[in-house]
TrEMBL record:
Domain of life: Eukaryota
UniProt keywords, alphabetically: Protein transport, Transport
Protein name: Clathrin adaptor alpha/beta/gamma-adaptin appendage Ig-like subdomain domain-containing protein
GO biological process terms, semicolon-separated: intracellular protein transport; vesicle-mediated transport
SUPFAM superfamilies, per database record: Clathrin adaptor appendage domain
Chain coiled-coil ranges: none
Ubl conjugation listed as a keyword: no
Keyword RNA-binding in record: no
């Protein structure tokens, strides 16, 4: 499969469709866009997720007048998310003004944090190139049966620690040009479920700067699924 590189010039696009089936959610999310581009190479990525699996098509275009030698593509995944590149060739050449594609397959095994990284390397003449590119894929792209998460990635000994972390997360969101509105700090609201949702919101806003949602919508979230449903509603 190939795609005209010019088709990927447009800003990163997302198309979202959600179906409700027997209280379980199957989500199909299509994304495409340019991950990286310079005078030598252009890397495009098209992603489709459904339930607990995802298939990404990676397009690598040689913009230079030289042949790229020993092109290698691997995926460094995160715990809880299986990933692999198909076909699994060790290295391959890429002639001038040509393009190749590779499939990247993902499967969620458990709740995970962070995003996988595409590692692209090649050689031009005697010079080696290496590009670690974060892929636009996170836990919010999958919506399946609720994951059982009993604790946050961090733990608190007192409400004071929760309050401090709460302030830190809000400040992080502010740095991302995102404001949480209608949000007071009464003890009833300073709970781990709400804070977990804010952390998840912070991760999501890093991927989608245009996301707009009131913190009021998160106050009743009891599970990660509830939080995710709010993020994509």
């Amino acid at each position: 499969a190939k795609i005209d590189l010019e088709d990927l010039e447009k800003p990163y696009q997302e198309e979202l469709c959600i179906e409700c089936m027997n209280t379980e959610y199957i989500k199909t999310w299509k994304k495409q866009g340019v991950l990286f581009e310079d005078g030598t190479i252009q890397v495009g990525f098209k992603l489709e997720t459904k339930s607990n699996t995802a298939k990404g098509t990676m397009y690598i275009g040689n913009k230079s007048r030289s042949e790229l030698h020993k092109v290698a593509t691997t995926v460094c995944s995160v715990e809880g998310l299986c990933a692999g590149v198909d076909p699994e060739e060790d290295t391959y050449p890429l002639t001038s003004s040509s393009q190749t594609s590779r499939f990247v397959l993902f499967k969620v095994e458990s709740a995970f944090w962070g995003s996988p990284v595409l590692e692209l390397s090649f050689k031009v003449g005697s010079r080696n190139y290496y590009y670690p590119l974060a892929l636009p894929l996170g836990i919010w792209d999958f919506l399946v049966k609720p994951f059982k998460i009993s604790v946050l990635p961090f733990q608190f000994k007192s409400e004071i620690e929760v309050s401090k972390k709460f302030d830190q997360v809000l400040e992080d969101l502010k740095q991302l040009n995102f404001s949480v509105v209608h949000c007071s700090k009464s003890s009833a609201e300073l709970n781990c479920q709400f804070l977990e949702s804010l952390v998840l919101l912070k991760i999501s806003i890093e991927k989608n700067p245009k996301l707009e949602i009131s913190a009021e919508d998160y106050r009743t979230g009891q599970t990660l699924q509830d939080s995710l449903k709010k993020l994509i509603s």
